[in-house]
Amino acid sequence: MKQFSYRYMALLPLLFALFYWELSPVAEFLNHYQTKMTLYFLEWGLEEGQLQGIDIMVNPHYKIIITKACNGMIPILVLFSAVLAYPTGWTYKVWWLFSGYLVIATINIVRLLMVAHFVKKQLDFPLYHDLFGNLLLMTTGLLLFYLFLRGTRY
Hints:
Layout: H1 2-19, H2 25-45, E1 51-52, E2 55-59, E3 62-65, H3 73-85, H4 90-121, H5 125-150
Antiparallel strand pairs: 1-2, 2-3
Helix pairs in contact: 1-3, 2-4, 3-4, 3-5, 4-5
């Protein structure tokens, strides 16, 4: 357990430095395309004309801006750190990295659609985004890691 904790605490800042830090060229590339993909799928769930560039127009006076922090990379990297730190086979890890990415990216789009829908009805962005939206992402990440652990053979 100690080894997992040490590996996790080392991998977390390393993955964030490589794949999220604004000074990393890899992060710039990855986050740009992750955000574009998120916006592409958001358009499917929003009303026509509601998505304008990186803005979700909730009403004529209020918009939600989809920034790098909204593209789902933070919970993805937290899950990746935990999966990579755990002592199990690489085939299993790669399968969970791929599956975890798909699930969290999908849930992130659902989260953003949920926030846009509820904020349109009641302008309480912190409640829907910071509390419910982030709780949904954290719960998804924890559930995925729990399922990952259930299937490992140490």
